[in-house]
UniProtKB/TrEMBL annotation:
SUPFAM superfamilies: UDP-Glycosyltransferase/glycogen phosphorylase. It comes from Simplicispira metamorpha. Keywords: Transferase. GO terms for molecular function: glycosyltransferase activity. The keyword Transferase applies. The keyword Transferase applies. Residues 173-324 form the Glycosyl transferase family domain. It holds the Pfam family Glycos_transf_1. This is Glycosyltransferase involved in cell wall biosynthesis. PANTHER family: GLYCOSYL TRANSFERASE GROUP 1, GLYCOSYLTRANSFERASE.
Length: 341
């Protein structure tokens, strides 16, 4: 089958969405399909540029560009799922979240208000027009139902390098690997460190726009001996950091899916997350594979104290998490079979 794979690309930025597209592309080719990647250069601002790209994609016919037959269009992101093809399958990672659950009417500019109306109209038409509609997680499907009135089927996949993750002796730290951004809420964990009585260390992996603010917060509270900003790490270091963690903390605000939760479970580590963290709640079973706390430093500190106080129980919860994720049978072969059916 000749497949056109559409995804957005913010130039020189790579994250989970880009890894997701790479892995799907590779899995489609392994299955014997001929795949072309269509990368749409996405900018979050100004609003006029978002509207311009949306207008370009709206109804753009890719069934036979320049006479070249395309058997199927698979689109992953806004606004690419607005293009036209009779066999268009959308597997939505997320929509333009700034115009949805992250939209703040009280502080929005007139341009943002106008763009939001355009995006909701566009998405409503585009998502109803696709041949089949999937979501990256149950949380993403819930948002499309809530805002657009469309039903999407959750389709899960394994995180990158899942087969490499392993469990080893814990070295007395909790691990939070993620971009340093406001929505990931590393500051919750930094603030929680002020309330800890146990000697657990906190490793924050990754880089991002909040690095300076988090570094200042750590210094202000005198937590330099407790909390470490690690920056980037290699794939081998990632495997080791998961392997020797006492547990993994992942407390984003309303995450779409969250590879980190799944990675922790493949590494047999218990996960601490929050009641409003979205995607992680689809996998973490409170008291069985981890903790689900209120999004406050005090509640987070209490969960970490429990993690430290009974390490045998924490290890058993990690093993239960590994068994749970393995029972889901996540595989790229299954994803390809579903999207190409």
């Amino acid at each position: 089958m000749r497949i056109l794979l559409s995804a957005s690309q913010a130039p020189f930025l790579r994250g989970g969405a880009e890894l997701h597209a790479d892995n799907l592309h590779a899995a489609l080719e392994r299955a014997g399909h001929e795949v072309e990647r269509l990368k749409l250069p996405f900018k979050f601002a100004p609003e006029a540029d978002v509207a311009r790209l949306m207008a370009f994609c709206d109804g753009y016919d890719v069934a036979a560009p320049n006479g070249q037959r395309v058997d199927r269009l698979i689109s992953l992101q806004f606004p690419g799922y607005g293009m036209a093809h009779p066999q268009h399958v959308a597997w939505v990672l997320h929509q333009h979240r700034a115009m949805y659950e992250l939209f703040d009417a009280a502080s929005a500019t007139p341009a943002q208000v106008q763009l939001r109306a355009q995006v909701l109209d566009y998405d409503g038409r585009a998502l109803r027009a696709v041949h089949r509609l999937f979501a990256n997680s149950r949380r993403v499907a819930e948002r499309m139902q809530q805002f657009n009135g469309v039903a999407a089927t959750p389709l899960y996949h394994p995180p990158p390098g899942a087969e490499l993750l392993r469990c080893a002796a814990e070295w007395g730290y909790v691990f939070f690997p993620s971009r340093l951004e406001s929505l990931k809420r590393q500051d919750l964990l930094i603030e929680a460190a002020r309330h800890l009585r146990c000697p657990v260390k906190i490793l924050l992996g990754g880089t991002g726009g909040q690095h300076a603010r988090y570094a200042q917060l750590i210094e202000r509270h005198g937590l330099q001996d407790r909390v470490r900003l690690m920056g980037n790490f290699t794939e081998a270091e990632r495997v080791q950091l998961y392997a020797h963690a006492l547990g993994v903390v992942f407390v984003p605000r309303d995450e779409d899916l969250g590879y980190i939760t799944l990675e922790a479970m493949y590494a047999a580590k218990p996960v601490i997350t929050c009641t409003d963290s979205g995607g992680p709640l689809e996998f973490v079973l409170p008291g069985q594979t981890g903790w689900v706390t209120e999004p406050t430093p005090e509640a987070l500190a209490e969960a970490i104290e429990a993690l430290w106080a009974n390490k045998a129980r924490s290890a058993a919860m990690g093993q239960a998490g590994r068994e749970r994720v393995q029972s889901l049978g996540l595989s790229w072969d299954r994803v390809v079979e579903t999207l190409c059916a």
